[in-house]
Amino acid sequence: MRRSERIALISKTLSENPNKIISLNHFGQWLGAAKSSISEDLNIIKDAYKTSGQGELTTIPGAAGGVRYRTKRSADDINAFLKDLSSTLQDQKRIIPGGYLYMTDVMFSPEFSSIIGEIFAQLFIDKNPTHVLTVETKGIPIALMTAKALNVPMVVARRDSRVTEGPSVGISYVSGSGQKIHNMSLAKRALPENAQVLIIDDFMKAGGTARGMTELVAEFKAQVVGTAMVVATAVPEKKLVEDFTTLLILDSIDTHKGLIDISINNKLM
Question: Is the pLDDT of residue 63 over 80?
Answer without folding.
Answer: no
